[in-house]
Amino acid sequence: xxxxxxxxxxxxxxxxxxxxxxxxxxxxxxxxxxxxxxxxxxxxxxxxxxxxxxxxxxxxxxxxxxxxxxxxxxxxxxxxxxxxxxxxxxxxxxxxxxxxxxxxxxxxxxxxxxxxxxxxxxxxxxxxxxxxxxxxxxxxxxxxxxxxxxxxxxxxxxxxxxxxxxxxxxxxxxxxxxxxxxxxxxxxxxxxxxxxxxxxxxxxxxxxxxxxxxxxxxxxxxxxxxxxxxxxxxxxxxxxxxxxxxxxxxxxxxxxxxxxxxxxxxxxxxxxxxxxxxxxxxxxxxxxxxxxxxxxxxxxxxxxxxxxxxxxxxxxxxxxxxxxxxxxxxxxxxxxxxxxxxxxxxxxxxxxxxxxxxxxxxxxxxxxxxxxxxxxxxxxxxxxxxxxxxxxxxxxxxxxxxxxxxxxxxxxxxxxxxxxxxxxxxxxxxxxxxxxxxxxxxxxxxxxxxxxxxxxxxxxxxxxxxxxxxxxxxxxxxxxxxxxxxxxxxxxxxxxxxxxxxxxxxxxxxxxxxxxxx
Length: 518
What we know:
Distance between the termini: 33 Å
CATH architecture of the domain at 244-357 and 408-441: Orthogonal Bundle
Strand content: 15-25%
């Protein structure tokens, strides 16, 4: 069994994900985290909860993962002085999540010899420093005066060093994020991000919904990943109810997920060409993406497949004629994408912008806990479709696309590889899918029942953790986007490059503001 060397009383969780749950004391956290890290595991999600209404004080939750499965740890914290050890000593990706936990719940990181960043992350002065929105006694209406917002960016000093602030409002129609560049001439010495501008109170909103209503909210956390979030949420609900959706529903979910992956990669490949000075690439790839989105609307009712997946299955079935249309589009797309890849590979000016630009080394990727295609482009061959390989991917022999260069060119190559693999998978799904039910009714889970969903979205792995409340309601929910792990990687990848290369480096990752700012 995975994590068996930890010597913890682990209980297997119901559901499609190979997962276990264990309760630990705060004093055990350093030993457990160190052991998982040393075994090659990673921290995939970290959040807190207020259980004082059940005389339980506060709690800290961690999801640790390796190639075999996921371990959900729950650590009870004191009601009057909730605190826990600094987990960033073992997992670098814990830093910003710890800061978010403090902003939302007032749970502190204990003092340690390691540097602990105590700057706010989600709090931008919208609420005072004595208010914590996720506490049970927090008011839904903010009637107190706002707090201060004097964020302390890390200064870089030296002869000729100056700063370039970018954002949070950008020229394009995108979500807000602030980038503070420290540069000498055009060379970037340091980049520091400040995010959290789109914090929407998703966790608080979940706790006011039923499990059925929560499915719609999950699919709207980050619109370009609506399928991945909806599937992870549905998986968590099905786990807490001890049910398995019909096989046809699982095949259709995988089909939708690969359609989402293709659409996003096509759009980004076009944008990368445009940022590299090849507007032709943008025009051609956006044409292909539009074809994908239009067919989505015809067969599933929504261009981006929103609300296509629901707990228990999928919203509606797809007939054989529509399935054949999807396979035919794959046949038409593949030669066009291959031709465009040849143009990109042979275009000297574009390759000059891509190669050795924005390098993320394998060592840095591992240290930061980077996931998804960004990790695969740095030689880390992790993909939840392959390992642990949830149904129906366990029957599809997913071929993981990787590169070793870790630069923009590597991330572009992995994206092309993933498009071709998704086209192959869709054709295989259309060929193998059998008639049957597309959805089933789910029972009401008992109060306190846990559920965990784990899906490889197009950016990387997405987790949704749920706890059932009374009468089919949600007591607690946490949704985790891969951008939590991957935003810090952008800060490292841009170092040593020139400022004009930032757009192409940034687009090669194309991270989510909304998914990271729940």
